[in-house]
Design goal:
80% helix, mainly alpha, 224 residues
Amino acid sequence: MLVSEAASVQPAAMQTAAEPPRRHPWWGPVLIAAFVGLVVCTNIANVVWARWIDQDPEAVMALSSRNRYLVLAIGSGISPAAYVAIATARLGLAFAVCHMIGRAYRDDAYRWFIKYLGMNTKGIRSLEQGFSKAQWVVVPFFVGSNIVAVITGVERTPPARLIGLIAVGLAGRLALVWWLAKVFEDPLTDFLAFVARYQWWVIVGSIVLVVIVNSRNVRRGSGT
């Protein structure tokens, strides 16, 4: 459902004449603000994880439930109940927010992901094609993907079906990550010891990386 390149270069007057401007729901900006908040939380996790992961893995997971933080939290001794509850809530919240953004903004949401978040048109189209052919595979497999969540909103996936697919995907992901963390428990423990020993160096490196990534995205979005 991406807008074609030809349409994107038409003069504004021609586009207005051909298609009336789409009105977005009043709650759209609320979802945008929520998404920005989640991005900020992820960036905070990317900075503080080295200091917090051993003492407060629950807080790191609440800020960001990316796979690496799930694995590190398990290595730090988080309880199975807290692991499942926090990861389910954080991943489910992110998916719900992105899904509703897709419902509210449709093709505009795609353009924002391309402009500000490093996605590309080819990648989104590939996911769209996979979604149209086998969404029952794509949604569970990419349950942690913001852009897949947006696609489910753009395509208006029925809520009952979506909840079932998300539940399957979350259960599979959390179980797999837990199993892998236990299989590689010794190297994971060694890595956490290394992080604890060189904690401040890791934090400085994390800050530099966050600044570089966000600066690149800002320049990309501004066209500079």
